[in-house]
Amino acid sequence: MPIFLRSCWKGIQMKFSKLIWSNIYKTISNYIIFWFFDISIMFFLYVGSFIGNSYKEILVSNALPIIILLVAFIVLYYITRLMLVIKGKEFSIYLLIGISKNGVKGIYIAENLGILLLALLVGLPLAIVYSYISVFGKMELSTFIEVTTKTIETTIVYFLIYCIYTVSVCMYFVDKNNIKDLLAIKKKSEGNRKCNNMKQKIVLLIFLFVLYIVSLNYIEQMLSLVFLLVVGMVYMLIMLFYDVLALIRKSKWLMQKNRLYLVGNILRKSRSKQFVYAILNICFGISSCSYIFGEVFQNTKTTIISLELDRIMGYIQTNISLLFFVTICFIINLNQFLDVLETERDYYILMSIGRDKKSLFNMLRREISINGGLSVLVVVPLLIIACCVIQKNFDDVLLGFILGKYIVMCTLIFIFCEMLLYYSIKKAMKKWIK
Amino acid sequence: MINIKDVSKQYDNKMVLKDITFDINAGDFVCIMGASGSGKTTLLNILSTIDNDYEGIVEYGGVNISKLQGKNIADFRNSNIGIIFQDYNLLDCLTVYENIIIALTFMKISKKEQQERVLEIAGELGIQDILEKYPHEISGGQCQRVACARAMVKKPSIILADEPTGALDTAASRALLKTLKMMNDTFKVTILMVTHDPLTASYCKKIYFMNDGRIVKEMDRGEEKREKFFADILEELLERDSNEI
Predict the structure, then answer these.
(1) Inter-chain contact B75–A256, Cβ cutoff 8 Å?
(2) Cα–Cα distances in angstroms (integers) from residue A32 to residues A81, A160, A307, A419, B104, in the given order
(3) 3-state secondary structure of B9
(4) At what angle do helices B96-105 and B140-152 cross, to 10 degrees?
(5) CA distance B117 to B155
(6) What pLDDT score does A189 carry?
(7) Do A264 and B73 lie within an 8 Å CB cutoff?
(8) Domain ranges for chain B
(9) A268–B73: do the CB atoms touch at under 8 Å?
(10) C-alpha to C-alpha distance for A358 and A150, rounded to whole angstroms
(11) What does the pLDDT average to over A371-389?
(12) Residue A327 reports pLDDT greater than 60
């Protein structure tokens, strides 16, 4: 029997199932980000497969679920590490009271699979409803049912691959750490970000930028390379931002009012958290480019396959990009909200050394703005490259109009999410202060 | 310096403080002793202005703090009160140096003076070598000394300490209490400490015993030696215990 099945079985044998479910229930706030992430992965995997199954002749659409799966693999690796940071103490206590490592593995795997199953149960129906609405009137019902059946099968296969990967990552992380490591894992990740290899990062960034400029001449042949270059540049920029903050930590400029805590708090994020945040921001940018391309498919007179197919593809692409944008926006904000909830004790300390509620709240607002600003930093370069590609290939597209429409829509969604976050934090803070 | 008059407080229809009245003079080293749930920490929260939902009057040098609101109360706390907690309450995301200086960043003093004050207090408390470290990289005793430094660096008129030795071993507790005594003797800082440990209480000049939200007894050390005062406290506790039985 494979090791992970044996671990799961051991967990159930030891009557941990009750513990696992009560754990999921109790730590729902920790898992919520994981859950939302999994729901969106299930959703986009299904929609990606649906497009692939509907338009077989378009090779690129078959690649969509695979790209989504690859992005999910990377993010999942870091989310699992992050979850272990949160639950490290709990697991070390299980080990201390005599539960074997396989037992702990079983608990962790079963918790993660439970979350995945819940995500599938929510994400799949949502995706089916969404795809039905998208093709309503454009596809016959019998064809729709046929494609849907096939897509569900494909999605289940992807789901199983995703489950196996999750189990492997969970096992890897629990195996890697002993009791002492699990107890220290959180402490190690707190507040110890130092400025690492900043010069190398700048050199690499310049190198990527030069490559990008060179590749612009061959953009038609090297689209995927250019895209990867931009993603790499964006990632480097985000990491540089953290490094610059770490570098100015000792400057006198910091030694006033809220700045000291603000910078310390931003740098408190563990490396995994910073990485997850960077990836989410890159996804943010990808959705923007995807939207622009979708609009071009819909509006250009130049045909790629056939005019009708291009329109339908464009329509689906713009919708899915917007939905992806909303999801990522929501996950980023939720992430921020959970971060703020973790710092409740800090606000109590700051109040005890003489801060008033108003200035604490202003400080929080500034932190939210900085994190929001990072997202803009990501979206802008990606939009520039998307516009370069569009201009080169489609002369008849009203780029200004598309960009304007997109920016207005994004701004509205962004403001809505930020306001929601702002309101939730304000409410939470009032409760703590009381 | 501090006048507490008829202070009462209730939680969910249960009186946790009942007509507390006593005064603390400038330069005093006062201790409040009592069992768990006797109302010590509630009283300390009121005195530290963290809790302002109570009945009665608390005056600091003639200023009635129950009438202060919002920014005024924060400013008052910042310039007059230093607080030391049982579990240190240091900010994990800041280094020791930053944890101390953060208390000064809210005050209107120059950056040069901020730096000088931090280095001075760090030297006094023997933590000058760990200024670049994070709280998780130092021991419990060092953490508590950092918390003391953060409370002291503002040069407050009073320091409130809530079970400051609660999380420390014997050697670290002794070192901390000596530090508090030195702060009281050298800098003439008024200290109000809450504890249930008689050995810790024996370092103080005056003790108020609390039971069920009331002050039931007052003990003054006067010119007595600490060892004798410790014996008196133990005797008092034994007497109270036998009375309860």
Answers:
(1) no
(2) 15, 21, 42, 20, 38
(3) strand
(4) 20
(5) 10
(6) 47
(7) no
(8) 2-88+138-144+155-244
(9) no
(10) 56
(11) 74
(12) yes
Residue B223 has what pLDDT? 83
Where in chain A are the domains?
1-189, 190-434
Distance CA A84, CA A419 (A): 31
Tokens of B53: 């939902």
Please, what is the average pLDDT of chain A?
74
Amino acid symbol at A2: P
Higher pLDDT, A137 or A132: A132
Record the tokens describing residue B39, joined without a space. Answer: 């109302």
Residue with tokens 């009281």: B184
Q: Which residues pair with B24 in a beta bridge?
A: B2
Which H or E element spans position B110?
none
Which of A345, A353, A355 to mutate to probe the B interface, most B CBs <10 Å? Answer: A353
For residue B214, give the H/E element and its range.
strand B214-220
Q: Which of A104, A102, A43, A111 is nearest to A80 (CA)?
A: A111
Q: Residue A432 burial by CB count (10 A; 0-12/13-18/19+): exposed, middle or buried?
A: middle
Helix (H) or strand (E) holding B10: strand B2-11
CA geometry: angle A3, A271, A27, nearest 5 deg: 60
Structure tokens at B131: 């200024």
Asked if the ipTM is above 0.90, the reply is no
Task: Please report where in the chains the tokens 């870091």 appear, as a residue.
Answer: A78
- Which chain B residues touch A352 with a CB distance below 8 Å? 48, 50, 77, 83, 85, 89
User: How many A/B residue pairs have CB atoms within 8 Å?
Assistant: 87
Under CATH, domain B2-88+138-144+155-244 is a member of which superfamily? Answer: P-loop containing nucleotide triphosphate hydrolases (3.40.50.300)
Helix (H, G, I), strand (E, B) or coil at A303: coil
Q: What is the pLDDT of residue A29?
A: 63
Rounded Cα distance between B192 and B177, Å, is 12
- Chain A residues within 8 A of B79 when measuring between CB atoms: 354
- Judged by a CB distance cut-off of 8 A, whether residue A265 touches chain B is yes
Comparing B5 with A228, which gets the higher pLDDT? B5
pLDDT per residue over B33-87, tens digit each?
988 888 888 888 888 887 878 888 888 888 888 777 777 777 788 788 888 888 8
Determine the Cα angle at B53 with ends B52 and B56, to 5°: 85
Chain A residue numbers with beta carbons less than 8 Å from the beta carbon of B70 are 356-358
Q: Which of B47, B65, B101, B102 to mutate to test the interface with A (most CBs of A within 10 A)?
A: B102
Give tens-digit pLDDT for B128-140: 899 988 888 888 8
The identity of residue B66, as a single letter, is S
Q: Report which residue type is found at A245.
A: L
The number of beta carbons lying within 10 Å of the beta carbon of residue A419 is 11
User: Are residues A261 and B93, on separate chains, in Cβ contact within 8 Å?
Assistant: yes
Dihedrals phi, psi of B60, to nearest 5 degrees: -110, 110
pLDDT averaged per 10 residues, chain B (length 245): 88 85 90 86 85 86 80 80 84 85 80 88 87 86 88 87 82 83 85 89 90 88 85 86 71
Tell me the pLDDT tens digit for each residue of A143-196.
Answer: 888 888 888 988 888 889 888 988 888 888 887 776 666 665 555 444 455 656
Mark A3-18 as b/e (b = at least 16 C-beta within 10 Å): ebeebbebbeeeebee
SS3 of A331-356: the string is HHHHHHHHHHHHCHHHHHHHHHCCCC
